[in-house]
Amino acid sequence: MVDLQSQYAKIKDIVDPSIQEVMDSAAFINGPKVHQFQKNLEDYLGVKHVIPCANGTDALQITMMGLGLQPGDEVITADFTFAATVEVIALLQLTPVLVDVDPVTFNIDVEAIKNAITPKTKAIIPVHLFGLPAEMDAIMALAEEHNLYVIEDNAQAIGASYTHKDGSKTKTGAIGHVASTSFFPSKNLGCYGDGGAIFTNDDDLAHTIRGIVNHGMYERYHHDVVGVNSRLDAIQAAVLDAKLPHLDTYNKARRNAARKYNEAFKNHPNIVTPTGLEQDDNDDAHVFHQYTLNLKGVDRDALVAHLQANNIPCGVYYPIPLHLQKAYQDERYNEDDFTVTNQLIKSVISLPMHTELDDEQIEFITSTVLNFINSNK
Ligand SMILES: *Cc1c(COP(=O)(O)O)cnc(C)c1O
């Protein structure tokens, strides 16, 4: 699905010296590399504060601790996402409220959010799924109306820009009250281990969160709040700082690959290709963490088996809706409220997507998919 080896081979000359600097300085925790990466990411995103931490799941948890959410508070998020999002809500004894997604964008359905708001609702977590920004203007307006926090789960969309109704653009992660991201190796900006970060434009919240990631300490050995130990280590920061200047090029390579896939599948009666490529080459409206097709009248699992038999990796993100996971069942849920997710889990398939895909690979993948579908009608 990804080719991190070829990517590393091309940037080894900048990554290795950056790591070596950390080794020579022996500043393995915090220190200048982490600070440098933090500043560079703040500039890149146009956000006031980046607070690095250990991984994307911690980042989400810490945002909710920072906002002071209390047990029993309800947090609305999408039924169709990676479990990390809902896991940390539950871990903090908050109540996850899952809602359906849009059939075209796969992102959280704004009408469904509206219907799920109760007096206990405190926050909404839109996930910019597969690299496509959620409908942030509508979500922010709804949040303002009901006095709710918006936490962007930006783990899959770093570098994407959201275009507001007035035409202006903001990078995802800089729109909500606070955002989280992951630097897991296969993410669009990945390190060589685990890593994550929190973003916010709110000075007070940034201060609170900086303490939480460091055992609730604002002054050495004074623990004002219950915190955690969640740090981005300096070697990972060295990798990320070396890769950050390439992020736009990487995202562009992903979009180019997506464009070629879309072209090959264009107007096929059994294949719905992803949206988000309507604009010009330089538009970063979708950064294709995943390239996901929605199949109509195709035996998806048979196609998966066929691709595997041809040594083509593929993935099903996600095969089970979160509301049906044992850990997250809730009596409030009604199957009729999840018709889109219940369908998508049966019809989506994600094809290889990374920065190193070449035309020959794309041609082999698309022809193998098309041959299977056209001969199994
Ligand atoms: C990857 C991911 C996370 C978790 O990130 P980790 O760094 O693996 O903890 C959270 N949310 C979404 C949507 C993700 O894709």
What is the element layout, followed by pairings?
Blueprint: H1 4-25, H2 31-45, E1 49-53, H3 56-66, E2 74-78, H4 84-91, E3 95-99, H5 110-116, E4 121-125, H6 136-146, E5 149-153, E6 161-163, E7 169-171, E8 178-182, E9 196-200, H7 203-212, E10 217-219, E11 222-223, H8 234-243, H9 247-265, E12 271-272, E13 291-295, H10 300-309, H11 339-347, E14 348-351, H12 359-375
Parallel strand pairs: 2-3, 2-4, 4-5, 5-8
Antiparallel strand pairs: 1-9, 6-7, 8-9, 10-11, 12-13, 13-14
Helix pairs in contact: 1-8, 2-8, 3-4, 3-7, 9-12
Quick recap:
By secondary structure, the chain is α/β, with parallel strands linked by helices. It has twelve helices and 14 strands. Helix 1 (about 5-25) packs across helix 8 (about 235-245), helix 3 (about 55-65) crosses helix 7 and helix 9 runs parallel beside helix 12 (about 360-375).
Describe the protein's architecture and organization.
- The protein has 377 residues and is α/β, with parallel strands linked by helices.
- It has 2 domains: 4-245, Aspartate Aminotransferase, domain 2 (3-Layer(aba) Sandwich), CATH 3.40.640.10; 247-375, Aspartate Aminotransferase, domain 1 (Alpha-Beta Complex).
- The protein is 40% helix and 15% strand.
- It has 12 helices and 14 strands.
- The chain has helices at residues 4-25, 31-45, 56-66, 84-91, 110-116, 136-146, 203-212, 234-243, 247-265, 300-309, 339-347, 359-375, and strands spanning 49-53, 74-78, 95-99, 121-125, 149-153, 161-163, 169-171, 178-182, 196-200, 217-219, 222-223, 271-272, 291-295, 348-351.
- The strands form 4 sheets. It has a 7-stranded mixed sheet with strand order 1-9-8-5-4-2-3, sandwiched between helices. It has a 3-stranded antiparallel sheet with strand order 12-13-14. A two-stranded antiparallel sheet has the order 6-7.
- α6 (136-146) links the parallel β4 and β5 (149-153).
- α2 (31-45) runs parallel beside α8 (234-243), α3 (56-66) crosses α7 (203-212) and α9 packs parallel to α12 (359-375).
- The protein is globular and about 70 Å long.
- The relative contact order is 0.16.
- The mean pLDDT is 96.
- Residues 55-57, 81-82, 84-85, 127, 153, 155-156, 182, 184, 194, 196 line the site of pyridoxal-5'-phosphate.
